[in-house]
Design a protein that fits this description.
heterodimer; A: about 300 residues; mainly alpha; B: about 400 residues; alpha+beta; Rossmann fold; OB fold (Dihydrolipoamide Acetyltransferase, E2P); 2 domains; 5-stranded antiparallel beta sheet; 20 strands; about 30% helix; about 30% strand; elongated; ABC-type transporter activity (chain B); ATP-binding (chain B)
């Protein structure tokens, strides 16, 4: 091969035929191509190993969910069920009202997400588009609330809602979470990079603020809303401490609390518990998979201009 | 239809210095007013205050006899074209054009009729289904102008609408805007830093500097009779040359020391004396400039080569020699740079006169075209004098 290269090189580039040029191109680019392929293979291999390592507990849990108890309690290492069964799922569903819990969680997480998108986008709009006295101070106060851990306020919050007689209801799960400083911040970052001339043009067109938000701002910041939806929904779905504290009755339990009911002292079945857990992580995982592009784009697109 | 009056308008941002100071202007019906000035002079701020996008710190804004200071932008019935087009990127061109009408609850049929009409007028018919991102800069700006027209506003406000376009497109759009003005017959208020746009488009030009009006006049008057040294230097390209001069003790002329310019002066005293006409002398006398220092301003085009001066009917000064630093051929014209009185000057002569670098040329000035400026106030002595004379003021105190 190398003698071809030398052969061709001796000629002036202009004298080469198209055929020769093509051959030269192939020969010259071969090492580079090989290097690129090798790099890619290495990258995929490393990624696969790391992904497997990270996902192992999750995959193992899925596998256990299909195992009869006898498969789990053996001396040999059983990574894959030898006698796959759906009994664990059936048992988990009959033992506790899991469907009700899932519906509760969907309702709560859905309403919290909806409420946060509305309230945070409105607040962020006024922080980025409107001019009023004390705007910056107010924004700083809102941001400062992010520094207070939820645990610090949980007792006073509990006392407040219990004195209102709100315990054991949906509203106690939803209303305290209808806005968040994080959401306001996220939206504001988005709106800061929004061209101000569009707002001014809309004002001159006679557009009201609300109409501007609905017909122009929101459609143009869809990716931000997507990020916000995924982030808020997963957070609300995974809420534990607050629902545990304020709700005692079976009907109001969210799935994260309900699942622990499977872990009763009298009848402990690890395979059944795991089957329950596997069922309830499906919604949050699928939401993440559907919205991951939005989430990642959303988290960073506000941060850097361009 | 529209009469806009700005009365002692001031603007300050958060208590700092005034960005616009005591701005007074009456804009009549169907005028094409151009605000021009260097960047940061407050021209856009004034426009945005008229539009209602900026609050007016003090002063009054009247439109058709109504006080507009506290009216919402949407209620002022003005439309604005922005520098960066400000089209809604997620809407089709049709929806962009129709947006303001839809907000005003104009019936759909009527909207359709008006949008198609305007699109035809601006040559946008083929683009109505497209999104703004699929359009070129010129097309985008045409859409922006289109949506401004559709509303049939009392006044069009344009904030440097052409500055994002390339040079060729800019010229073309400039002509289109001029055509539009003739067709629509509405008040236009146009902000630009480009004096060519200002000169070609405006019926009246407002020259601003540091938030203060320097002069309001027609393009021709602004060019021929600038009120101050700033206006004289700002309007006209290449800009006016300024050199120091002394008024003779009998005010019959001015003297310029032309020593030290790399050329042996032709007359022994090294002093170039220019004889002024009677009118100019009278003004100088009336305001007691005899023997005082002034600044002489002369436009590049008002220099003339000595060999061409013979046929001129105009009053031409005596010639003086200068050494050419460089010579630029611009097609029909030739710009000749030279040092004079320690200042780099430029003369705009005919391309036929071949002048090369290092040549010594004999050059004259058209005496009727010279401007004299007060050294302290920088006000134009002749322009001011004539203005006062018109008003019947005969005293000199005001200069």
């Amino acid at each position: 091969m190398s003698d071809i290269v030398i052969d061709v090189r001796e000629k002036n580039g202009l004298e080469m035929s198209a055929e020769e040029l093509k051959r030269l191109h192939a020969v010259m680019s071969a090492p580079g191509k090989r290097k690129k392929t090798a790099k890619k293979i290495l990258l995929v291999a490393v990624n696969t190993v790391v992904a497997l390592f990270i996902l192992l507990p999750l995959l193992y849990a899925v596998s256990i969910a299909f195992m009869p108890s006898s498969d789990l309690y053996t001396m040999s290492m059983n990574l894959i069920p030898t006698h796959p069964t759906l009994d664990n799922f059936r048992e988990a569903l009959t033992k506790v009202p899991l469907v009700r819990f899932v519906l509760n969680s969907f309702l709560v997480a859905g309403l919290i997400t909806f409420g946060q998108v509305i309230s945070c986008s409105l607040a962020a709009f006024s922080f980025s588009f409107l001019e009023f006295k004390g705007k910056n101070v107010l924004f700083m106060i809102v941001m400062a609330t992010m520094m207070i851990p939820g645990e610090a306020t949980i007792i006073s919050n509990y006392l407040t809602v219990s004195s209102w007689g709100w315990l054991n209801s949906y509203r106690v799960l939803i209303i305290p979470y209808l806005t968040s400083a994080m959401g306001i911040f996220l939206f504001r970052q988005f709106y800061m990079s929004f061209p101000k001339a569009l707002y001014e043009a809309a004002m001159l067109d006679g557009c009201s603020n609300l109409r501007f938000i609905l017909t122009i701002l929101m459609p143009l910041t869809k990716s931000g809303i997507g990020a916000m939806v995924v982030y808020t929904f997963i957070n609300a779905w995974n809420m534990y401490m607050w629902p545990l504290l304020v709700n005692g009755s079976n009907e109001m339990r969210t799935v994260q609390i309900g699942i622990s009911m499977l872990n009763s002292i009298d009848a402990q079945s690890i395979t059944m518990m795991i089957a329950g857990v596997v069922m309830i992580i499906i919604p949050s995982i699928s939401i993440f998979i559907i919205g991951q592009k939005q989430l990642i784009r959303g988290m960073f697109s506000g941060a850097v201009k361009g | 239809m529209s009469q806009i009056r700005l009365n002692h308008i001031c603007k300050s941002y958060q208590g700092t210095d005034l960005a616009v100071k005591d701005f007074n202007l009456d804009i009549g019906e169907k005028e094409f007013i151009v605000f021009v000035g260097p960047s940061g002079c407050g021209k856009s701020t004034v426009l945005r205050m008229i539009a209602g996008l900026e609050e007016i710190t003090s002063g009054e804004l009247w439109m058709n006899g109504k006080l507009m200071n506290y009216e919402d932008p949407g209620k002022r019935n003005v439309s604005m074209v922005f520098q960066n087009y400000a089209l809604y990127p997620h809407m089709s061109i049709y929806d962009n054009l129709a947006f303001s009408l839809a907000i005003r609850k104009v019936p759909k049929k009527e909207i359709k009729k008006r949008v198609t009409e305007t699109a035809r007028m601006l040559g946008l018919e083929q683009l109505l289904d497209r999104r703004p991102a699929q359009l070129s800069g010129g097309q985008k700006q045409r859409v922006a102008i289109g949506s401004a027209i559709l509303r049939e506003p009392n006044a069009f406000l344009m904030d440097e609408p052409l500055s994002n376009l390339d040079a060729k497109m800019r010229t073309q759009m400039r002509v289109e805007i001029a055509g539009l003005y003739n067709r629509l017959n509405t008040t236009f208020i146009y902000v630009t830093h480009d004096q060519t746009e200002a000169m070609t488009l405006g019926t009246r030009i407002v020259v601003l500097k540091e938030g203060v009006i320097q002069q309001v006049d027609t393009p021709q008057n602004l060019y021929d009779h600038p009120a101050s040294r700033f206006v004289a230097g700002f309007i006209g390209s290449p800009s006016m040359n300024f050199v120091d001069a002394d008024v003779l003790s009998d005010a019959s002329g001015i003297a310029i020391e032309s020593a030290g310019d790399g050329v042996e002066a032709s007359n022994a005293s090294n002093v170039l004396e220019l004889k002024l006409n009677d009118n100019q002398t009278a003004i100088l006398k009336r305001f007691h400039y005899e023997g005082q220092e002034v600044t002489l301003g002369i436009r590049p085009g008002d220099f003339i080569l000595k060999k061409n001066a013979g046929g001129q009917k105009e009053n031409v000064s005596q010639a003086f020699p200068v050494k050419v630093l460089s010579s630029e051929l611009l097609g029909s014209d030739r710009l000749v740079y030279f040092m004079w009185e320690g200042v780099k000057c430029v003369a705009d002569i005919s391309a036929d006169d071949e002048v090369a670098r290092g040549d010594v040329i004999e050059i004259c000035m058209k005496l009727d075209k010279i401007h004299l400026f007060n050294k302290n106030t920088e006000a134009s002595i002749f322009a001011h004098g004539e203005k006062l004379a018109q008003k019947g003021v005969s005293d000199y105190e005001e200069v």
